[in-house]
Amino acid sequence: xxxxxxxxxxxxxxxxxxxxxxxxxxxxxxxxxxxxxxxxxxxxxxxxxxxxxxxxxxxxxxxxxxxxxxxxxxxxxxxxxxxxxxxxxxxxxxxxxxxxxxxxxxxxxxxxxxxxxxxxxxxxxxxxxxxxxxxxxxxxxxxxxxxxxxxxxxxxxxxxxxxxxxxxxxxxxxxxxxxxxx
Length: 182
Known about the structure:
The chain has about 180 residues and is of the alpha/beta class.
């Protein structure tokens, strides 16, 4: 099994030459995207479509944007990603339709072993993240590896989502907890 296959399977892996080349490709496209004129929607969208696995109809991502590989990110129709977001996509990040992502949101699939020797050897692994349709992630929300957020849920600014959240709730805090139904 290749290191990329291990990464996508959620197993421990090392970033080998193939993965490093893919990261460098993504960084080159991000440099183009983040340096593009904000009023050049067609040019920016073309770069995003070259970078990301899927960009839905009328989806919009504002500069600056950062990711690892890009091809593991799927953004749904009419979804808005605001300034300064970071999506570490060593495993799929699936974002539904009509999602609102505020400035500075970080979505992580990458993580590291807790065991010291394995972690210090450079091993890492990744778990997928799924954001349901109609979700709103407030400013500076952090979504941790392996999390699913149910449709129409709102996550308050500054929250850290460490566990799955059900649909149709307001969640806040670090760690984020559902405080009421919507």
